């Protein structure tokens, strides 16, 4: 067999396959570029699984007209000049492969401006620069990636389902939300919106997303470890704010029964090698650091524990210095008020309940039903397939010879008026086209949340164990935060 050099376009696709393995890889690389550009706001827009459309918008420093055609060239980088630079790299990206790799397997637009006045756009298809022209855009960069892997169809066949890819994108995005609290993040995927505003401290960002049971710290000259025991379900590891996978760290934490956590490790860049994985998902610690031994001693020693005063959501009734019971939460109008030493949170009760009930519906195959004391007649007929669907949501409907009768309603709607029940069922009588299940469930949840009984503390605890407790699935605000300093300003 004769040995031949590979054609350049084949080489490019091989390299692209190492760096860009899925739509979530695209999101990862583009967010890292935005962070390195000094962005304080990063927005990600995704359609479906991300194969057809991904857009990342930032307000970073932008790319000049001269540099714009060069960003898609292989091994061109703004971050590395010498071998010494590689040894002390502190930026998220550095290899000069990301945009080149994405461009090789997609149709890509890049729009950028360094001053918000003059902007330029390039269009790249399969790695080839097709067009460059002036455009109107704000300061920063917008990258649009369409038809990912259009020229590598075999790659598409090995991707997971659309739902799985969408989940991977969300988890990838969340990694950078967690590790860069000073940046505002926005995600719109499958018509769902998530948003986290910039925070001053890492504690606040972790609290926003998961809620914190306990925080532990080790601070030494060449090593800082911050371990958050969280309320939510997650295992996240960051080294110098870079998300990584490390089986030895996971094994050490598991050995001491630490199951749900966010771990931050800070070391001098010269003591780690971040160039051991094409996607920078692994790092190698210098032997001189003896990192794993020090981590194990830190976990085993259980020293330097800082109890999170902000985390009132898991605190049970305690007595203060005067002996008076401190409830932790109380009700005011339609809000649940959660006070602490540094802020007051106002939780919209009905929206919080709606989010909790929605999560419960998703996790169940069938909603429990309660029998009405007196069956309720319905003035319109419901076909057999609709009755079967309604039964999964807790509605027990019987078709008699001359009437349709409702015998049971969902348990979560206990207390609803007959008019409200009919309002939910009108989704079947009023429809003129295909049945809108999402609209039906939303109407059901809206009415159920008016009547469902749950004490305030339980609402807060359940809410803060969820991802993104601050917004409903429709993007409505659930939590309003009033910092203590804002209150104090009124008395100055």
Straight-line distance between termini: 85 Å
Main sheet: strand order: 5-4-3-6-2-1-7-8
The fourth-level CATH homologous superfamily of the largest domain is: Histidine kinase-like ATPase, C-terminal domain
Strand content: 25-35%
CATH topology type of the largest domain? Heat Shock Protein 90
Mean pLDDT: 81
- Treating each run of at least 4 consecutive H or I residues as one helix, how many helices? 15
CATH structural class of the largest domain: Alpha Beta
Structural class: alpha+beta
Radius of gyration over alpha carbons? 27 Å
Whole-number total of structural domains: 3
Biggest sheet character: 8 strands, mixed
Give the name of the CATH architecture of the largest domain.
2-Layer Sandwich
Low-pLDDT parts are 9-18, 303-326
What is the global morphology?
A: globular
Please provide a written account of the structure.
The protein is of the alpha+beta class. It folds into three domains: 8-196, Histidine kinase-like ATPase, C-terminal domain (Heat Shock Protein 90, 2-Layer Sandwich), CATH 3.30.565; 202-306, Ribosomal Protein S5, domain 2 (2-Layer Sandwich), CATH 3.30.230.10; 312-492, formyl-coa transferase, domain 3 (2-Layer Sandwich). It is built from 15 helices and 25 strands. The chain has helices at 8-19, 23-36, 83-87, 98-104, 153-157, 162-179, 202-209, 247-255, 291-301, 349-363, 384-392, 418-429, 437-451, 456-463, 484-489; strands at 41-47, 53-58, 107-113, 119-125, 128-135, 140-146, 184-189, 192-196, 212-220, 223-230, 235-239, 242-243, 261-266, 272-273, 284-285, 305-306, 318-319, 325-326, 330-332, 335-339, 343-348, 369-378, 396-399, 404-410, 479-483. The strands form six sheets. It has an eight-stranded mixed beta sheet with strand order 5-4-3-6-2-1-7-8, with helices on one face. A hairpin with a 5-residue loop joins strand 17 and strand 18 (325-326). Helix 8 packs parallel to helix 9 (291-301) and helix 12 (418-429) packs antiparallel against helix 13. The longest helix has 18 residues, at 162-179. The radius of gyration is 27 Å and the shape is globular. Mean pLDDT is 81; it is low at 9-18 and 303-326.
């Amino acid at each position: 067999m004769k040995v031949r050099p590979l054609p350049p376009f084949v080489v490019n696709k091989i390299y692209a396959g190492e760096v860009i393995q899925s739509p979530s890889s695209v999101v990862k690389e583009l967010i890292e570029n935005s962070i390195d550009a000094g962005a304080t706001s990063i927005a990600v827009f995704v359609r479906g699984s991300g194969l057809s459309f991904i857009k990342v918008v930032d307000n970073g420093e932008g790319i000049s007209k001269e540099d714009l055609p060069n960003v898609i060239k292989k091994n061109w980088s703004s971050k590395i000049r010498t071998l010494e630079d590689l040894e002390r790299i502190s930026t998220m990206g550095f290899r000069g492969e990301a945009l080149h790799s994405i461009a090789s397997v997609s149709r890509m637009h890049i729009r950028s401006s360094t001053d918000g006045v003059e902007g330029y756009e390039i269009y790249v298809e399969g790695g080839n620069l097709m067009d460059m022209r002036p455009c109107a855009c704000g300061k920063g960069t917008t990258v649009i990636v369409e038809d990912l892997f259009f020229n590598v169809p075999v790659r598409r066949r090995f991707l997971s389902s659309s739902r799985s890819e969408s989940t991977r994108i969300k988890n990838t995005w969340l990694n950078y939300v967690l590790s860069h609290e000073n940046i505002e993040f926005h995600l719109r995927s499958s018509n769902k919106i998530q948003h986290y505003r910039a925070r001053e401290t890492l504690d606040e960002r972790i609290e926003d997303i998961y809620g914190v049971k306990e925080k532990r710290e080790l601070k030494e000259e060449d090593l800082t470890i911050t371990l958050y025991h969280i309320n939510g379900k997650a295992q996240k590891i960051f080294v110098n704010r870079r998300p990584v996978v490390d089986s030895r760290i996971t094994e050490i934490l598991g050995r001491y029964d630490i199951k749900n956590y966010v771990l931050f490790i800070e070391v001098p860049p010269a003591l780690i090698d971040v160039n051991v994985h094409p996607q920078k998902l692994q790092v190698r610690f210098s032997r001189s650091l003896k990192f794993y031994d020090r981590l194990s001693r830190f976990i085993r020693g259980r020293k330097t524990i800082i109890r999170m005063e902000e985390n009132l959501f898991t605190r049970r009734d305690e007595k203060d210095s005067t002996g008076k019971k401190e409830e932790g939460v109380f009700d005011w109008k339609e809000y649940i008020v959660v006070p602490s030493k540094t802020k007051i949170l106002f939780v919209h009760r009905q929206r919080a309940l709606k989010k909790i009930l929605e999560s419960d519906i998703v996790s169940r195959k069938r909603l429990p039903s309660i029998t009405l004391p007196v069956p309720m007649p319905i003035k319109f007929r419901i076909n057999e397939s609709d009755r079967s669907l309604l039964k999964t949501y807790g509605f027990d409907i019987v078709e008699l010879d001359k009437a349709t009768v409702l015998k049971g309603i969902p348990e979560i709607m206990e207390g609803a008026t007959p008019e409200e029940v009919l309002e939910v069922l009108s989704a079947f009588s009023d429809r003129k086209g295909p049945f809108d299940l999402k609209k039906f469930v939303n109407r059901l949840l809206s009415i159920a949340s008016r009547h469902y009984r749950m004490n305030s503390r339980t609402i807060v605890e359940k809410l803060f164990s969820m991802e993104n407790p601050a917004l409903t699935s429709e993007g409505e605000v659930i939590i309003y935060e009033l910092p203590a300093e804002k209150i104090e300003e009124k008395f100055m």
